[in-house]
Known about the structure:
Blueprint: H1 6-22, H2 27-55, H3 63-80, H4 82-89, H5 94-131, H6 137-142, H7 145-168, H8 186-227, H9 233-269, H10 276-291, H11 293-304, H12 306-328
Helix pairs in contact: 2-3, 2-4, 2-10, 2-11, 3-5, 3-7, 3-11, 4-5, 5-7, 5-8, 7-8, 8-9, 9-10, 9-11, 11-12
Amino acid sequence: MFNVTNQELSINETQTMERNCTNLHSVFTRQVMPVFYSVTCVCAFILNGFAAWIFFRVPSTSVLVVYLKNMVVADMLMLFTYPWRVARDLGYGGLQLKLIVCRYIAVLFYLSMYTGIIFMSLISLERYFKIVRGTSNVSSLLQRVTVGKVLALLAWTVMIICMLPNSILTNQPIPEDYYCMELKSSLGQHWHKISVHFNVGVFWVAFLLIMFCYTSIACHVYRSYRRVQQDSSEAGRRSNRRIFSLLAVFVLCFVPYHICRVPYTLSQINDCINNHFILFQIKEVTLFLSSLNVCLDPVIYFFMCRTFRESLLQKMSSVKGKNRRLRNL
């Protein structure tokens, strides 16, 4: 009665592992996270809608404006994915909605996120050459609007080429219960791993580039004001606000996620290792921090772009003036 064969034990262990790999969600990811995403979606829709309304009334007369406009587009595309994710996590739509999220929505989310990261690094590079290397030939080249548009198009093209196969190769029959990796073909799983490592590489290159550029800018500004012996307190505060607004958003939103991204991907590929569930929970929390980027990017627009800031303040003063006139009627 107690005689259990090695084959039976192996089958039971395999079935247990498969159940653990499939049932990765917890009460936190099923009930709490959708609330967080819903609140973020509403706030981000208001902020980015207003930012888009201002930006796309502003002509692209500088490279900075070109990059910031593309960041707005990336944020709006990223924001579009949130309602789909919330509906899936709440259990609506069944297997078909889950398939749409796995095959299209998740790909669009990561495409938008990493394209936005590239534009953050391009902004820091443009600022560096304009402020620190303003007299160089490279600086004059990078300040051309045409060059900015070409680099923007190149960024979108590279990311689409990298991410689109993840959608195309998610083409396996739908089982009764599954997680997204099971829908990928063998080639699709290999491409998924390659694209994740590529995206993580993009992030860390962008992170190092941003740190170098803004450290150099801060040192250059400090030396300039020391050299002319002026009171640099106000100018220094303005410079610090511009520098640390982008750095703070970048570090808060993206660094935690990219610390755990590669271990989690390896746990997906390696037939579900023991800590896959824990890595999934950590990945979901840090991924939510990345999603907060769409709420915080308008802070970058305000501090980095004088045209955006002046347009925003003008609109606010116009609204206040109208309200004042209505009260006086």
